[in-house]
Amino acid sequence: MNSQSNPSRMMLLAFVLLAAALWFVDSIFELLWFNEANASFIDLLLPLDRPHEMFMRTMLVSSLLLSGAVFSFMFGRISRSKEAARASEEKLRTLFNSIGDAVIATDANGVITRMNPVAENLTGWSVQEAAGKPLSDVFSIINALTNHPCANPVEKVLKSKCVVGLANHTTLISRTGDNFQIADSAAPVFDKTGGIAGTVLVFRDVSEDYRQREELRKLRNYLSNIIDSMPSILVGVDADGHVTQWNMTAEKITGISAVDAQGKSLVSVFPRMASEMDKIKESIRTRQSCSEERKTRLSKNGTCYEDVTIFPLIANGVEGAVIQIDDVTERCNLEQMMIQTEKMMSVGGLAAGMAHEINNPLAAIAGNSQNILNRIYKDLEKNRKTARDCDVDLEKMREYLSRRDIPRMLNGISESCNRAATIVSNMLRFSRKSERKFGQCNLAELMNNTIDLAANDYDLKREYDFRKIEIIKEYSPELSTVVCEENEIQQVFLNLLKNGAQAMMDKEYVEGSPCFILRLKKDGRMAVIEVEDNGPGMPEDVRKRVFEPFYSTKSVGRGTGLGLSVSYFIITDQHGGFMEVNSIPGNWTRFRIKIPISGQES
Amino acid sequence: MSNLILILDDDVHVRESLAISLEDEEFDVYEVGSSEEALSFLAKQMVDLVVVDLRLPGMNGTDFINEARQKWADLKFIIYTGSPEFSIPVELAEVPCVSNSIFLKPLPTSAVMVSEIRRMLG
Ligand SMILES: Nc1ncnc2c1ncn2[C@@H]1O[C@H](COP(=O)(O)OP(=O)(O)O)[C@@H](O)[C@H]1O
Ligand SMILES: [Mg+2]
Question: Is A554 helix (H, G, I), strand (E, B) or coil?
Fold first, then answer.
């Protein structure tokens, strides 16, 4: 207040002094020129005895003082109001400068008039430098996604006279080249008449927000990538059984995209879950997970096994469940294969011990039945001589024996004996023998040879004509030679062809005719062999057991039940491969074999 | 003059049936049931060829062949066995007096063995 009142007081004081000085100077004048009475200076200074003089001086001084008072009062007022204006400007600036957001004001032409420190910071321009420049020089913004420059918001405001928000993903490039993610808006400033006086642009550095949002997005992507890359089917449902989550495997298996599945009822997009719905509801209600292993399901590729697990969701108050479905067909098959091999190894061990004991009597039976035939029918001197000695007519005796079917009986003995021998030798294949010869083998050639062999097989010919079967060969040129024991693999092929042919003979074809499809392909380091027939196929319970030793659905004499188990053993145990069978009853049967192309690593 | 053949097998029926087949093919055939018997038989009566079973009580067929071929260099051998796991023993594989074809019981016909015997005896 001191500085404010001083000037007016000083002015008043000046007038007082001036008045006093005038008085004084007047007295001096009097003394020098108008002192007729030779009065003393003291008398002249205060001429109480001269009323006229006194009156004149008093009038002069008082009018001077009066005008001084008026002047100083006016001056005081002016200086006070100036002070107030300065203070309010100061207040405004402080306010402006302490706004947390960046603010830039422009005039009606879009030329910068002021800027707060936050704006200075972000743009990299100081107010002094920026003032008077068009906004676009100082405030350069691009689209964060496309990197294209964005339209100047102030121009838009000036044109539209409305508040304009910045587009999302706006990046501000500062004078020094730093990038900031910014958000916010520009607004018009109106003057009293309603015309545009300028604009004010308010913006905020949202880089941190933006980074966090980006991070969140990445995290979400990462999580959904994890879910997607799971080999299991993962499906989320809400309490009403509507799909909330649908991973890539689910897309692949069902052929329905996640977008399409979203929100639909589970059963409508995944019909085979119909049987699971009760369990899902139950699981959500009890908040207990529930799982079912080895669910069998018939698909167009034959029987599949699935593990189905239902996890209730209890986090965040969200009601629902996640269903996980794993295809464990391969694993089941592998297990079955191991059980099978186990069984066959025990058969093999048994067979090795028994073979000698059985083969000896068989040798005697076979040998002697041949001897009997020889001694009756062979043209031997001894036969004739003995007949003569016994007084028997050899021809007559032969006729008698023939009429009584003796030769047929003997043949029957030989044949049965041979069959027994085959069974024993088949069983022996289950035992590991050391002298097997592995070598490079062309599977296509081997397959073709085996077809010829099957066509000429005596046993087969008796039942049907192999040539009536159409054979489609799909040999991939990619597969050249394979390291294997040729004889054994040929035996496998022969078994499969025989079985297929026998099976197709048992089917009455309404349309089509018996047909084999033989495929040879390469799958990584494995050779794949498929033998498919369009015969009667086999029901599930048969399919499960065909690799068991001695399992056969054929009548005694027609099948031994060893063909497939031997084949299985040869492939899985002797060649380190895989063998499986799939079938649709009434339609087809397909055996698939995989063996390592470069032989079994041992 | 017919060739002399000795059949060494512990199973009498196998021995007999083979003997009959060979007799009918005009060979002179003798039978023994063990390696030891065979060695003492051969000491008295020399033959051209021995048909040997491998799995035998006492001395087995492989040992018998090894011993007999030291004593009688001209003697020939054919292996006839019911135990497929006995493949031709390595030490005999390269020996010219032992037939390379091993005959597995039961033989559907003796003809194959007869022709091998004829081949070996020249
Ligand atoms: N191609 C096929 N089509 C239908 N059934 C088959 C086929 N191959 C095999 N089978 C079934 O598998 C069983 C076992 O076959 P296998 O082990 O070869 O023994 P076998 O042929 O002696 O019966 C057969 O009895 C038959 O029921
Ligand atoms: Mg079969």
Answer: coil
A553 CB near ligand 1 (under 6 Å): yes
Task: Kindly report the pTM of this predicted structure.
Answer: 0.49
Q: Which amino acid is at A383?
A: N
Same fold yes or no, A100-212 and A439-596: no
- Write out chain A residues lying below 8 Å of B24, CB-based: 371, 374-375, 378, 380, 382
pLDDT digits (tens, 9 = 90+) for A518-534: 999 999 999 999 999 99
Pick A439-596's CATH classification: 3.40.50.1220, 3.30.565.10, 1.10.240.10, 2.60.120.10: 3.30.565.10
Distance, in Å, from the CA atom of A274 to the CA atom of A341, rounded to the nearest integer, reads 37
Q: Give A518's strand partners.
A: A473, A531
Q: What is the ipTM of this complex?
A: 0.91
C-alpha pair distances (Å), A559 with each of A316, A570, B93: 64, 19, 37
| CA A361–ligand 2 middle distance (angstroms) | 26
We find that the CATH architecture of domain B4-121 is: 3-Layer(aba) Sandwich (3.40)
Kindly report the protein residue whose alpha carbon is nearest to atom 19 of ligand 1: A561
What pLDDT is attached to residue A1?
A: 45
Task: Supply A494's token pair.
Answer: 């022969």
Please tell me the distance in Å from B55's CA to the nearest CA on chain A: 8
Q: Give domain limits for chain B.
A: 4-121
How far, in Å, CA of A531 to CA of A523, rounded? 16
pLDDT tens, position by position, A4-28: 457 788 888 888 898 889 888 888 8
| Lowest-pLDDT range of A99-103, A147-151, A238-242, A447-451 | A147-151
Stated as kind and residue range, the H or E segment containing A135 is: helix A135-138
Q: What b/e readout covers A501-535, taking b as 16+ CB neighbours within 10 angstroms? A: bbbbbeeeeeeeebbbbbbbeeeeebbbbbbbbbb
* Residue of chain A whose alpha carbon sits nearest to that of B16: A364
Q: State whether the beta carbon of A491 lies less than 6 angstroms from ligand 1.
A: no
Residues of chain B with Cβ-Cβ distance to A434 below 8 Å are 87
> What span, in angstroms and rounded, lies between the C-alpha atoms of A573 and A438?
14
CATH for A230-327 (1.20.1560.10, 3.30.450.20, 3.30.379.10, 3.20.20.70): 3.30.450.20
Confidence band (pLDDT; 50, 70, 90) for B1?
low
Predicted pLDDT of residue A216 = 92
Q: Do A359 and B105 touch (CB under 8 A)?
A: yes
Say how far apart CA A289 and CA A89 lie, in whole Å: 70
* Ligand 1 neighbourhood includes A198 CB (under 6 angstroms): no
Q: What is the mean pLDDT of chain A?
A: 86
Residues B21, A355: C-beta atoms closer than 8 Å: no
Q: Are B18 and A367 in contact (CB under 8 A)?
A: yes
Say if residues A172 and A182 touch (Cβ distance below 8 Å): yes
Pocket lining: A533 vs ligand 1, CB cutoff 6 Å: yes
Predicted local distance difference test score (pLDDT) of residue A4: 47
Cβ-based contacts of A363 with chain B (< 8 Å) = 11, 14, 17-18, 82, 105-107
DSSP one-letter code for A29: H
Residue A365 identity (one-letter amino acid): I
B104 contacts in chain A (CB < 8 Å): 359
Tell me, using a 6 A CB cutoff, whether residue A559 lines ligand 1. Answer: yes
Coil, helix or strand at residue A102: strand
Q: How many CB atoms lie within 10 A of CB A330?
A: 12
Residue type, A202: V
Assigned CATH topology for domain A100-212: Beta-Lactamase (3.30.450)
Higher model confidence: residue A299 or residue A90?
Answer: A90
